[in-house]
Design a protein that fits this description.
- Helix content is about 65%, strand content about 10%.
- It is of the alpha/beta class and about 600 residues long.
- A hairpin with a 4-residue loop joins strand 3 (about 95-100) and strand 4 (about 105-110).
- It is elongated and about 130 Å long.
Length: about 600
């Protein structure tokens, strides 16, 4: 089932706003402005879904060529030697253009074709220019950059120390990392350490591996090479983590989420770019970019959706923890008791209201069973009576037959009325009283169990329970359809005697009449049970209102004591927000674990 991200958006944005109000109106802290700034940043990220995808890896892994093939046009300069010397960010724009953002804050527009003179180290002058640049920004109408997604090309690691620093400095601003690994080279220890560094980064929520230069491997060897690399990457990363962290560290959960289903693609950037330029779909498929173009947007969208929400909820949780860090233990005790009672109050109301909907269902089932039993038994009795009547006839005289059938009809009618008055209706009333009392007693027991730990608080509610469970308020079952009648004659007219089967006629008439009578009884009983449920709801409403009132008074008292201890009037709000945020985090992560990309 698809995750309703919009619903989570609304809730998280509400939490951020509530936390903002608490900090703005509450007791000032030296970190208040820092917290408010972080909240505003998360609010903006929730609204825009700004998401950063970086292509990273060692030098000579074909990262810039891969980005060009992904965009379908040569946008970034490439060369056989290590080329990229700056951070190159591709963002969405309806018209292709580029500009340079210098470290001193200045910006300069350039032609895309001129980027090599500023972002590479192909010449001494270009390298000097690159050293002054914070990043080069290219606006391009790419499907991968729609919806606030930035695609970032980074300098190759292990080229030189200055390039390493440029790439590492950008890691804190990356959400998803695409790691480029060459099909011609094994997954080295330095590459393994770099991937572990990506995994350790709390900002990075997903890692994707792209095997480049797959066209340099013979087709018959490709599957073996890809399987080997997949196993080697997962194994070496896990071994490195096990050497660095204890087994209970949360980083292993992140490893399992990402590397338990590692997304790996094998591509030929040269063939992919040529296929996009020429429209050769077969070449596009063999290059690996057709599959990548189908899967990557979905992976980005899924990561983009939950990343913004997960980061916002982590920020909320962290700010609350920092805020609460200095609260005295005594205040926490009072707040915990108040919080627990707040939850129990809600559970009390939920149990009550949910139970009312099904309160008399068992009574309805048992009464209907009794009515159905009466219908079947009476049909059998009617047939037996008429069968005996016909079998006892000693003459075929039609007038004698008519008289016998009329007498049998009268006798059957009297018997049916007698059974209804003497057995059926008393049984219905008895079942109604028994099941209503049992259901209400059971409901009271469940509700009492909720508030029993706070017995001294809810003494008044206990008195109301006694009245409720006595069922003295329960309306009596009034049987409006106590009279029974045949809706068509039990026997045919005399002139039809020779041509109809009298037993079949009697059977059909009895079944139709009894079914009609029983249906009327069920409809009336259903209405009266509904009325009884409404009466029960009225009584329960009074109990819930009283319980809420008493619980509110008690929680208010406890929280006042906590405020007296801490002198922090906003604690109850922030504690509630913390619980809600934690619950929402658990709910979202459970859904993400079940989501199938």
């Amino acid at each position: 089932m698809a995750i309703d991200y919009k619903s989570y958006d609304f809730q998280i944005y509400e939490y951020l706003f509530r936390l903002q109000q608490i900090l703005e109106n509450g007791v000032w802290s030296p970190k208040t402005e820092e917290w408010l700034s972080q909240i505003r940043y998360e609010q903006d990220r929730i609204k825009t879904r700004r998401f950063r995808v970086a292509v990273v890896g060692e030098f000579k892994r074909g990262k810039s060529s891969f980005v060009n093939a992904l965009l379908g046009q040569v946008v970034l300069p490439v060369d056989a030697s290590p080329t990229t010397a700056t951070i190159n960010r591709i963002t969405y724009g309806s018209v292709p253009k580029a500009y340079l953002r210098y470290k001193d804050g200045l910006e300069q527009k350039v032609e895309i074709g001129e980027l090599a003179a500023y972002v590479t180290k192909l010449t001494g002058e270009a390298a000097e220019n690159a050293a002054l640049i914070e990043e080069a920004v290219v606006e391009y109408p790419s499907i991968f950059c729609q919806n606030y997604v930035d695609l970032i090309d980074t300098p190759g690691m292990n080229d030189d120390d200055s390039m390493n620093q440029v790439t590492v400095s950008k890691l804190e601003q990356i959400d998803l990392a695409i790691v480029a690994i060459s099909a011609n080279l094994p997954f080295s220890d330095t590459e393994n350490n770099f991937v572990v560094q990506l995994l350790e980064n709390p900002e990075i929520c997903q890692i994707i591996v792209v095997i480049t230069y797959i066209d340099m491997v013979r087709e018959r060897d490709r599957e073996r090479i890809l399987t080997y690399l997949h196993e080697r990457i997962c194994r070496k990363v896990l071994e490195r983590l096990q050497a660095l962290y204890p087994e209970e560290d949360p980083i292993f959960q992140k490893y399992e989420r990402i590397f338990g289903n590692l997304q790996q693609f094998a591509v030929s950037s040269v063939d992919g770019l040529l296929a996009r330029e020429t429209g050769d779909m077969e070449l596009l498929e063999s290059s690996g970019f057709m599959q990548l173009n189908q899967r990557l947007p979905r992976l980005i969208l899924s990561s983009q959706n939950h990343n913004a929400m997960d980061k916002a909820m982590d920020t909320i949780d962290r700010i609350i923890q920092e805020y609460q860090a200095s609260l005295p233990e005594e205040a926490e005790v009072y707040l915990a008791r108040a919080g627990h009672l707040e939850e129990e109050k809600k559970r009390f109301a939920r149990i009550g209201y949910e139970s009312i909907e099904t309160l008399l269902d068992e009574a309805r089932v048992r009464i209907y069973e009794r009515i159905n039993q009466f219908e079947v038994q009476m049909t059998e009795i009617v047939l037996k009576g008429f069968s005996y009547c016909l079998s006892s006839m000693r003459t075929l005289d039609i007038n004698v037959l008519e008289g016998a059938l009329i007498r049998q009809s009268v006798e059957t009618y009297r018997y049916a009325c007698q059974e209804i008055q003497a057995r059926l209706l008393p049984d219905i009333r008895r079942l109604y009283q028994e099941e209503a009392w049992r259901s209400i007693t059971d409901l009271c027991s469940r509700l009492r169990a909720v508030i029993s730990p706070y017995g001294e608080v809810f003494q008044k509610v206990e008195k109301m329970f006694s009245e409720f469970s006595s069922c003295c308020w329960l309306p009596a079952m009034i049987m409006k359809h106590s009279e029974f009648g045949w809706i068509r004659p039990l026997t045919p007219e005399k002139e039809f005697f020779p041509v109809v089967d009298i037993i079949d006629w009697v059977n059909a008439s009895a079944k139709e009449s009894l079914w009609y009578y029983c249906s009327l009884q069920k409809e009336e009983i259903s209405r009266q049970l509904q009325t009884a449920c409404m009466k029960a709801a009225e009584h329960l409403e009074r109990i819930v209102v009283e319980m809420y009132h008493l619980a509110e008074e008690q929680t208010k008292q406890w929280r006042q004591e906590a405020r007296t201890i801490t002198n922090r009037i906003t604690e109850e709000k922030i504690s509630l927000l913390k619980r809600e945020n934690t619950q929402l985090q658990k709910q979202l992560r459970q859904e993400l674990n079940q989501e199938v990309l």
